[in-house]
Model the fold of this input.
Amino acid sequence: MKKIFKELPAFPHLVCPQKIFRILKLTIIIIFVVSSNVSGSDSDSPNAGSNSQQNVITGIVKDKTGAPVTGANVVVTGTTVGTMTDGEGKFSISVPQGSASLTVTFIGMEPQEVPLGSSRNIEIVLGESAIGLDEVVVTALGIKREAKTLGYATAVVNQIQLTENRSSTAMGTLQGKVSGVNITQFGTGPAGSTRIRIRGNSAFQGANLPLLVINGVPIDNTRFQEGNADLGDGLNSINPDDVQSMTVLKGAAAAALYGSRAKDGVIMITTRSGMETKGFGVTYNMNYTMEKAVDYTDFQYEYGQGERGIRPTVAFPTSGVWSFGEKIQPGMTQTLFNNEVVPYVAYTTKDRYEEFYRTASNLTNTLSFSNSGENGGFDLSLASTKNTALLKNSDFTRKNITLGFTQNISKWVNISGNVNYSNEYYKNSPYGVGNQSAEINTIATMANTMPLELMEKS
Done:
């Protein structure tokens, strides 16, 4: 071969033939060595066609009481390899070689990352966690489900949200916090009835009221009344500070949980049971709110009481409450029904409302004791509510004693209950809205020249 290269003509601009030969020889040697290493690696593998080893890990998942956790997710951390525990809490998973840990998750419990050591059988204990209310929804009969798995619309309002924009009633605290839910409190004082609509009216007839469920028990929220006086409804007996959460189930699909009674939706109220915090605790909460009438509709003040341009000048006038009388002039007088003569002067709506109404106040004091452990807990609250209404001589007081408890008797038996005692006292409860004798109708339709101070004296 050297002889052949020597016979080739020399070209000064080309690479030396001897160098080309050395490069080709070195390339052949490198390819041979690499191919030998690859084939040797394949021959050493225990499984044909496999690039990595896998270890089988078995184990069991329990809670803190020792009960097996069924349906827990067991995943190799950082991968999509996973499995679920069976009815006895056991699992078996093939773990790729080099994996460092397993991640175990379950609804209502803290996720746990378990490092993998030399043991091929492990025991995992999960503790309870405070899961966000937007993740888990309590449906019928206390069943907890993830919100994304439900086939109907739901909305959950937690205790922190309920303490904002407080009201003297539990349902009043829900106003303006859930879309599609319209809550209207009648203008009949601090403990007046509440009208609730979810997504409007579903029928032309009937009350169109949603079903109210407190701690899994449906209640009757019928309005109480004595004559035309509004004495509130069933929800007035609940102290807003004792409410843990409110869940609103919307749509016709929600009615399947409770039947035809839930055709207008469901509002589920869960009260405190002591399991919200760990250990013993004492909580004191004071809430004070004020209210003031601000309806200052401006009417005409050029003409006073009377009809057809004639003001009342004799006792027992027949003009009623109309303000179509004589044009008001300085120094004019009018005669009232009892033959009393008073100045013929118009009062503005703002002055009249400020004289007729007063600044209302609501004071609620709540003292609660709670204790909880691994097997159960309780919450005992004492509450007092004092409310002075916008209308003078109208007041409302309420005393509440509420007890909620839960206790695990065994791994399979749990006992829970709620007791609520409420003592309510109404003083001069206003008449219902829409009644001709209602106080708000009286002040709104009264003639502009009628002096309120004389009516109060009478």
Q: What stands out?
A: The helical segments are 2-7, 17-44, 159-162, 255-258, 349-356, 439-445, 452-457. The mean pLDDT is 76.
